[in-house]
């Protein structure tokens, strides 16, 4: 009984904190966009030169968001997917339930869930990003299949030079995964299905508000061949501001919101910042 009361008290206090929740049950992309999501279009990092991001690579159905990547190995015919929420998230806990996918062909795709602020210039000291990146066929000089958890200090895009703290979880992660990031004033933590993957302190801790983002992009090294497509899905995302909550409690909060019939809610104050959606 005491344990139940503790959980109910926690869920009540979570409801009072600023929170952002979306279960991607919108009928169409226009509604998704009207509710504050930015659907990326055009070229730019991290897509390889010639590839493009397009809203047509995003779709909704059966309560899922689907991000599809298409390529035939020619980067001029490679289409990528990304969307970003408002840039207003910093201290707190963010969890997403995503279905990562191994691929039938060895394309160096990257399936990503992350929070990021702008990179104003090379080695911007205020650059803030925490992310998960799944490489089902390896990449970046390492063929191993793996999931990254990364906290960034800063970066220069051209020529590439990054300062970050990364940890790798090797092996297949095909299937549904619960990915959680906690950001505190002095540290960050990454969890995979409730298991602590990494904790970092110091200069890799975010310092400016970030946008919650999902992307599906192609790294260098794809082989020319027939046209093919790869996809991964997102079931829901939840952010609770100013609190470090265990993944199980984030999942319990989603169940409570769904039991109340809530499909989207956003009580995190707007900061009046532009979500660039270009990383």
UniProtKB/TrEMBL annotation:
Belongs to the glycosyl hydrolase 16 family. This is Glycoside hydrolase family 16 protein. Residues 257-279 are annotated as: Disordered. The lineage of its organism: Bacteria, Pseudomonadati, Pseudomonadota, Betaproteobacteria, Burkholderiales. Residues 1-17 form the signal peptide. Residues 1-245 form the GH16 domain. PROSITE patterns: GH16_2 (PS51762). It comes from the Bacteria. The keyword Hydrolase applies. Keywords: Hydrolase, Signal. One of its GO terms (molecular function) is hydrolase activity. CDD domains: Glyco_hydrolase_16. It comes from Roseateles paludis.
